Amino acid sequence: MKERILYIPSQLIDPFFFPDSKVRVDASHIRPDDPFFAYEILYFNEVATGSFPWIDHELYVGTILKSWGEEEEYLKTLYKKRSKNTLHAMKKSISQFYMLLFWSNSLPVRLNHEDSHIDQLSIKPANAVERIEFIRNNPTLFHSFIQLSQLFEEQHKQYAKSLALKRSKEK
Predict the structure, then answer these.
(1) How many other CB atoms are found less than 10 A from the CB of residue 118?
(2) Per residue in 62-87, pLDDT tens?
(3) Pair 102, 119: CB distance under 8 Å
(4) Which of 104, 105, 143, 153 sits CB 3.0–4.6 Å from 159 for a disulfide?
(5) Are 93 and 83 in contact (CB under 8 A)?
């Protein structure tokens, strides 16, 4: 399948990530963060891709965590140099956190406030909504980066605990 231009679905309309109403997506070579939430854009536009990451979350959560580890190191370097170019990297990392959060709950990412229901997710860090709001409102602050790092760590722990409990019940 060739690259397509798709509308941002209503579930993902969010000017923080999408200043335009359309994005370019290549369904034959999907990268979850290029554009942000590529799988969800395809899914909500009813474009078939095979497996979705919130269904096969164990594989994709590992990929997101690996990608975050690389991005975290890059951001540490930017903040250490007091670079003014942290916004795009932070947006990418925030999008990765949303993917980790929703996919580990077996759901596609939903960004619009009426639809997201982060507070109702079963696997999530403490005070997730307030902390994400702070980070989104101040994405270039070093403290936001620290908070995001903590959210990743807490979500990973919660997810691992959930998987362990699920596997112990299956035995």
Answers:
(1) 17
(2) 999 999 999 999 999 999 999 989 99
(3) no
(4) 104
(5) no
Please tell me the pTM assigned to this model: 0.93
Report pLDDT digits (tens) over 8-58. Answer: 999 999 999 999 999 988 877 787 777 999 999 999 999 877 788 999 888
DSSP 9: P
Q: Which two tokens stand for residue 78?
A: 């930017």
Which H or E element spans position 123? none
Long-range contacts of 54-60 (CB under 8 A, 24+ apart): 54/102, 54/103, 54/105, 54/106, 54/107, 54/108, 55/106, 57/103, 57/104, 57/106, 58/163, 60/32, 60/99, 60/103
d(CA 68, CA 88): 14
CB 91 within 8 A of CB 139: yes
* 3-state secondary structure (DSSP) of residue 6: strand
Do 15 and 8 form a contact (C-beta atoms < 8 A)? no
The pLDDT tens digits of the residues spanning 88-98 come to: 999 999 999 99
Reduce the DSSP state of residue 16 to 3 states and report it.
Answer: coil
**CA atoms in the 13 A half-sphere facing the CB of 82:** 0
